[in-house]
């Protein structure tokens, strides 16, 4: 679909991050009643060495004002948002077409993006032929509730990661995520851009479970978004699962966030991981449901 009359488009730059964040936040608030996106999320993703911002993004402008955007952030991974005040103008359909064309140009066979279940974006993508690849859930602890930390195996400690452990954390996380995510292994440099060089990163954001010999056998990345502690990544080495390390890391990560001012504890998971039941068993409640809709290109 062509760009609607009266609008223009251009590639994005790093200094567009604040405007894009505002558009995404407006859609999230309208669709889910809460806002999770932060400018740091975009900057961390956009500064990955593997990502070319000028060719991987497009912004739609009404005059000088940015009103929508789209990005192909990975071979089959996309994001898009339209200012709710500009819905109904055909911008979303145009961006869906742009993403499919961009995905084809880099050799992808499919492209998909997350949208809140039942939202205008979900309905639009369904109408355009996008199917649901997987379902995601955002979960939160009830106000005032905490997760009980189970006893640790003998000699195992949970603590802040040291710089010397950063590569080991990356390996544990990637090994675990690649068990269920059909994608290429993320480079340590991209991991570093998204986690270690994320704006606002502090050492306490990276937690590890260390075996008696010092080996990293589990890891968590916890972010502080306003007054919310958000566990962005959680992984346990395959040979150390079933020992309570996942719950222990989760309890530690949320406790670390509370120690830095968090009053709310959140995370997200999806149907590829099989982890929803684990989080519900420790007392977390689903607060919003998202679907990843994709289409062959």
UniProtKB/TrEMBL annotation:
It comes from the Bacteria. Pfam families: Acetyltransf_1. Coiled coil: none annotated. Residues 7-153, 156-297 form the N-acetyltransferase domain. InterPro entries: Acyl_CoA_acyltransferase, Bact_Acetyltransf, GNAT_dom. One of its GO terms (molecular function) is acyltransferase activity, transferring groups other than amino-acyl groups. Keywords: Acyltransferase, Transferase. PANTHER family: AMINOALKYLPHOSPHONATE N-ACETYLTRANSFERASE-RELATED, AMINOALKYLPHOSPHONATE N-ACETYLTRANSFERASE-RELATED-RELATED. This is GNAT family N-acetyltransferase. It comes from Georgenia ruanii.
């Amino acid at each position: 679909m062509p760009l609607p009359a009266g609008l223009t488009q251009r590639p994005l730059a790093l200094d567009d991050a604040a405007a894009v964040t505002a558009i995404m936040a407006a859609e999230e608030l309208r669709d889910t009643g809460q806002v999770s996106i932060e400018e740091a999320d975009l900057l961390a993703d956009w500064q990955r060495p593997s990502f070319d911002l000028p060719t991987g993004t497009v912004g739609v402008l009404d005059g000088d004002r940015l009103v929508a955007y789209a990005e192909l952030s990975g071979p089959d991974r996309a994001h898009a948002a339209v200012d709710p005040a500009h819905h109904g103008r055909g911008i979303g359909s145009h961006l869906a077409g742009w993403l499919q064309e961009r995905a084809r140009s880099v050799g992808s066979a499919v492209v998909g993006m997350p949208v809140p279940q039942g939202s205008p974006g979900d309905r639009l993508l369904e109408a355009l032929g996008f199917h649901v690849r997987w379902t995601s859930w955002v979960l939160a602890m009830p106000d005032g509730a905490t997760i009980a930390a189970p006893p640790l195996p003998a000699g195992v400690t949970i603590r802040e990661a040291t710089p010397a452990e950063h590569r080991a954390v990356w390996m544990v996380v990637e090994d675990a995520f690649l068990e269920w995510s059909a994608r290429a292994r993320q480079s340590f440099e991209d991991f570093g851009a998204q986690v270690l060089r994320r704006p606002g990163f502090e050492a306490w954001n990276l937690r590890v479970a260390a075996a008696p010999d010092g080996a990293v056998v589990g890891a968590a990345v916890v972010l502080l978004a306003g007054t919310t502690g958000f566990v962005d990544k959680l992984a346990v080495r395959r040979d150390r699962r079933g020992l309570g390390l996942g719950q222990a890391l989760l309890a530690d990560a949320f406790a670390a966030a509370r120690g830095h001012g968090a009053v709310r504890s959140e995370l997200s998971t999806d149907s590829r991981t099989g982890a929803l039941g684990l989080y519900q068993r420790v007392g977390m409640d689903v607060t919003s449901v998202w679907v990843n809709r994709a289409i062959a290109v």
